[in-house]
TrEMBL record:
Protein's name according to its UniProt entry: Carbonic anhydrase
The protein's Enzyme Commission number: 4.2.1.1
Positions that bind Zn(2+): C46, D48, H99, C102
Keyword annotations: Lyase, Metal-binding, Zinc
Pfam families registered for this protein in UniProt: Pro_CA
Top-level EC class as recorded in UniProt: lyase
Originating species: endosymbiont of Bathymodiolus septemdierum str. Myojin knoll
Length: 197
């Protein structure tokens, strides 16, 4: 499967989800062996409980290699997980999946304004979203509008960081064996919109 076919498979699955026509794969354990995984896409997504990634793309066991972290940020462990999947499974597509009404983005904005953080752990997430906020915030900002703008910009920032952060990722892209695409899940409609390359 090439990168375009992988993305189309996700688009088709999301359309089934939106139309309530999902295949709803059932767990069927095998007594003798476990099938090896061959994920056709890697998804770096937010941890938000309202974004069940396999479900919104209508995919089954072994189809997606999923890495979840609040704010769909890029940090060394996420890069390593993506490198692992590319090296082990030759997965042709990485999706950075953000979503509307992102709590991590909202928390990062609040931390920026109030100059505080809930904990050092939360700060390790919000500080990675901070550069995007710095470029977008104005004195007369509207919070909800800013969350939407920052969420989109944060997805694009994560795509760029992945493209630039790893020799394994760069080599796969240079050989046209990998593409990295940003996408946003719309909580109100269930639709996933893919960002242009």
């Amino acid at each position: 499967m090439n990168t375009q076919q992988a993305q189309q498979k996700l688009i088709d699955g999301n359309q089934r989800f939106v139309n309530n026509q999902t295949t709803r794969p059932e767990f069927a354990p095998q007594q003798d062996s476990v099938k090896p995984q061959m994920p056709f896409a890697i998804v770096l997504g937010c941890s938000d409980s309202r974004v069940p990634i396999e479900t919104i793309f209508d995919q089954s066991f072994g189809d997606l290699f999923i890495i979840r972290i609040a704010g769909n940020i890029v940090a060394p462990s996420q890069i390593g997980s993506i490198e692992f999947a590319i090296s082990m499974y030759q997965t042709p597509l990485v999706i950075v999946l953000g979503h509307t009404h992102c709590g991590a983005v909202s928390a990062a904005i609040d931390a920026h304004i109030q100059k505080n953080n809930i904990s050092s752990g939360v700060h390790s997430i919000t500080k990675r979203i901070q550069p995007v906020i710095d470029t977008l915030i104005t004195d007369d900002y509207n919070h909800d509008s800013l969350v939407c703008q920052v969420a989109d910009a944060n997805i694009k920032q994560s795509v760029r960081q992945l493209q630039e952060s790893s020799e394994i990722i760069r080599m796969a892209m240079t050989k046209n064996k990998l593409d990295i695409v940003g996408a946003k899940y719309i909580l109100q409609t269930g639709e996933v919109t893919f960002f242009p390359a």
